Amino acid sequence: MGEKTLAFFIEGATMYEVIWHGRGGQGVVIAAQILAESAYLQGFKGVTSAPTFGPERRGAPLTASTRISDTPIRTFSQIEQADIVVVLDRSLFHVVDIMGSLKPEGWLIINTAQKADEADHPGCLAIATADAAAIALRFHLLKEGAPMVNAPMLGVLSRATGLVSIEHLEKGLKWKLSGGAAATNIAALRAAYDETSISKTAGKG
Fold first, then answer.
1. pTM of the full predicted structure?
2. What is the distance in angstroms between the CA of the first residue and the CA of the last residue of the chain?
3. Number of structural domains the chain divides into
């Protein structure tokens, strides 16, 4: 587990739900799949991932979800409120009810140049941030000229929550990618893990 984790990770919870908010072309669905596979490789007995709604039109808002459980999953309904919400594109706060998809004690993980303490969202105690776009550009992770931020955001999720280790996320990336693509994405994953900013209030309350 990460050094700062919320109570729901250590007080008997058996299933964790993640909602990914992004735009078509940012790798939202792939990130959800990689997290599920990585959790399975880590030893979780139940994992699922799926696009939540809508076609993956480039630039259009898109949501995907991941469920991770200590036991086999028998719930397949759409996630209404998640333990972790990952925002790949901060502009979505203006067009999507992102905070409405987050549990009161959940983690909000944002791709932004702001430090976590600066990314104020009322009522949210647990915020983690990293400049995933800058990291993607640094490692030349581009698709049609736009930064692919999904691998860096997986690193932020791992550092903030400790739910799935960085080592198992590397294995998940190797499952999805190969050769140089895997190596580059792993480098970006680790950079984001190291550069994650976590709110000082995370884990309190």
1. 0.91
2. 19
3. 1
